Amino acid sequence: MFLEPHFSGQRSGWLEVICGSMFSGKTEELIRRLKRAKIAGQHVEVFKPKIDTRYGESEVVSHDKNSLLATPISDTSRLLNVPDEITVIGLDEAQFFEPDVVKHVQILAQRGKRVIIAGLDMDFRGEPFGPICQLLAVAEYITKVHAICSHCGNLATHSYRLTTSQDTVVLGEKESYEARCRKCYAMGNILELK
Ligand SMILES: Nc1ncnc2c1ncn2[C@@H]1O[C@H](COP(=O)(O)OP(=O)(O)O)[C@@H](O)[C@H]1O
Ligand SMILES: Cc1cn([C@H]2C[C@H](O)[C@@H](COP(=O)(O)O)O2)c(=O)[nH]c1=O
Ligand SMILES: [Zn+2]
Question: How far apart are the CA of 150 and the centre of ligand 3, in A?
């Protein structure tokens, strides 16, 4: 369980990254932390990449259908325009943001804001996805969450693509992906080669 660091003295900002496979609870955890910030009386704003139209245009939605209003953006320089009174910023589907998101979230932290970033750690190939490596490097707090392997019930670490597309970006959920442990993911890829 992630508990918010205690503020003391001059407010300083920081970066939190929540990552894992699909269905691992990234969006649920992001929503949980943002709701707690609101309960604490902090002003929160949520953003997501404009490309993410899976569930809706202007909200982040978990696979459990919990949701928060979110502003879709195509350029993360937009984050630098948030009003001063916004002290907590949430980003979902961070894998789809452009590389400059790393620079922009660090500027926000420098301005004393808490930035909570959720996104896939790996793509369907098992490769780091988008800016995640750099975001993990510069974050103060990192949380890796796990799904349950659809094949064996162990902890899942990988997102296995069920369709034949080789495009890195293919929006979808259970019709196109399933969570798998490292072993079942590797087995699936071996069987595909036969
Ligand atoms: N294989 C799975 N393992 C764990 N949770 C799953 C799985 N398949 C569906 N779920 C559901 O997905 C929810 C997590 O949704 P969400 O937070 O949107 O995940 P993520 O953002 O990581 O894709 C879980 O609470 C659970 O109800
Ligand atoms: C593995 C993988 C996923 N995607 C897409 C599929 C979904 O639309 C999102 C991830 O959603 P979630 O909140 O983590 O469930 O990303 C993709 O485009 N490419 C991939 O390799
Ligand atoms: Zn497995």
Answer: 7
Q: Distance from CA of residue 83 to its chain's centroid?
A: 23
> What digits encode the pLDDT tens for the residues 110-156?
999 999 999 999 999 999 999 999 999 999 999 999 999 999 999 99
State which amino acid sits at residue 46: V
List the structure tokens of 177: 């992906």
The first and second tokens of residue 88, run together, are 């907590």
Spatial neighbors of 108 by CB under 8 A, at least 6 apart, are 13, 79, 80, 82, 89, 115
Reply yes or no on whether the pLDDT at 192 is more than 90: no
- CA–centroid distance, 11 to ligand 2, in Å, is 35
Question: Is the domain covering 14-146 a CATH 3.40.50.300 domain?
Answer: yes
User: Do 125 and 184 meet the contact criterion of CB atoms below 8 Å apart?
Assistant: no
CA geometry: angle 43, 107, 11, nearest 5 deg: 50
141 assigned binding-site residue: no
- Select which of 29, 45, 93, 178 is catalytic: 93
For the CA of 120, the closest atom of ligand 1 is: 22
ipTM of the complex: 0.99
Q: Mind listing the pLDDT tens digit for each residue in 28-40? A: 999 999 999 999 9
Which ligand 1 atom is the nearest neighbour of the CA of 150?
A: 1
Residue 108: both structure tokens together? 């926000």
Residue 16 annotated to the active site: no
